[in-house]
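Structure, all two chains, one model.
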Amino acid sequence: MEIVVCIKQVPEITEVKIDPETRTLVRAGVPSIVNPFDEIAVEEAVRIKERVGATVTVVTMGPPQARDALLKCLAMGADKAVLVTDRAFAGADTWATAYTLSQVLKKIPYDIVLCGKQAIDGDTAQVGPELAELLGIPHITYVRKVELHQDLKGVTVRRETDEGYDVVECKLPALLTAIKGLNEPRLPSLMNILAANRKEIKTVTLADLDGNPEQYGLAGSLTQVVDVFTPEPRGKGIKIDGSSPEEAAKQVVQFLLEKNVL
Amino acid sequence: MIEIDLEKCIGCGLCVKACPFAAVLLKDKKAVIMENCTLCGACVTICPVEAITIERKRVDTSKLAEYRGVWVYAEQAEGRLRTVALELLGKGRALADKLGEPLGAVLLGNHVAGLARELAAHGADKVYLAEHPALERYTTDAYTNVLSGVILQHNLNIVLFGATTNGRDLAPRVAARLHVGLTADCTGLDIDDKRQLVQTRPAFGGNIMASILTPYTRPQMATVRPNVFKSPKPDYSREAMVEELKINVDPRAIRTKTLQTVKEVSAEATSVEEADLIVSCGRGLKSPDNLELVKKLAETLQATVGGSRPIVDAGWMPHHQQVGQSGKTVSPKLYIACGISGAIQHIVGMRTSGVIVAVNSDPEAPIFNVADFGIVGDLFKIIPALTEEIKRVKVERK
């Protein structure tokens, strides 16, 4: 069994704040992490490996420092890592990212491709399904439980829906996207962190890939960011001291009655 | 490619400040672009001496003008339209009118023709209907095959999808099949002076907004979360032509099989997405035992209970009640935030609420920046007092 997990290195969003004066992102000291949903995907791959035996390969597209994210995944139990990095890949939108990953995956064997449901910096949830389409394999999104069939030729999963979940069955190869609740990712032990440094991280550049060079990076992107701005703040509201709860309650209820929302 | 004209660059450093990704540095008083540049163009806009240029692909606009018409994917489940489909018809109507193009609704399912009237009443000029037993319930493959085919046949300018679980599953698959751009979770859609669709969406957990164009391919496709746009007032005197699409679904092409559908949301409870009144709580509640306080207030108001990410992560509340970037976007008439500090990820999910009330012990909590009425104090005292006061007012009113 061959499992490929696609991951992304992202900034720790909860640490990102806006400077109220300049209205720009305050990024000093914001750490880079493995996208939390991708970590769940890695954990699931490693658990499958521990149950039935498998080779787990993690793949990321990003700048050279994304190597740190791969090391974390190797420490969690992945066997191999591929760093897809080249200036030519910069500025890729979801389509160009999926295209690049599909070209990488054409050179790696896989039965299951796992992704996080979305990255916490972009939140698009598009790369997984787009990648599956470009690979020509089925996908199941929002997976919160995976059961591998006895013959290792299919999976039965729970897929979260707007009302609950569906139980969905699919033959392999297939791509699954992981959500919270699928598992609790492990903290790698010190020994495994040290061992990760000895595992191989292969670097892939544009020269290593086939496909149309014009489909990569900004040139291949079908959407273009043309402006970036900080959101308009809501108008200033009333703020009162609540040391007298009854008085505060009276005032807020009065306010709500005036606004006609009660 | 992004390039800096070193002759022009005066080393003012404005681009360094403007870059949302920390991808520009000053080296020897000249700007240097780093590896992590996403080519978003924030630096190009701000540079006072036009020293930065990004070379983008050229567009043949005469070709693009051949694509006409705005379509809304009218998602239905079990024969009922998703409310987001109606919201999109309202926005789609405005876009279509601005372009002077027709608005279509494309409806896939089995025995769903009756929904056409509703789509017409909400603004569709024409309903494109694809009915087949294999479309009875959603599968990625069948829906992708049918929708991709009919979109291709119609040379469309714009297609909009609701960012529901299935909408977010379907739209990227269709986009990849058609090799067209797709923008997720837009909060603003407009037409610019070049007749392009300007798609605005939050990024970085809502810390910044990005405007996005799809310059080279048609249709321009976008998804929009429920509750971002207002549903238009239905006009049942409106009529729309219904065109039955000739489609063929080969069940063998459907590679996933749904064995069972389980509902976890009780039918009686109003979901946070649909609620008019929401009482929401966060970490300030300290313990799941204290949820009772919030529930009592919600009961008194006949409101739905919601929560922020930390308490959902902690397992105090199921995920479908979570409000925020990684949960639901809500837009109730009244949103009461109890013990929610107001991380930007939460704020982006509720800032379009009509009236926002916040109770928090920390006077500096960012939730107060969006609250119309903020109370700084102990929620364990204020929430019960508020519950009592509302009870009293309600009794008085009777």
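The mean pLDDT of chain A is 93.
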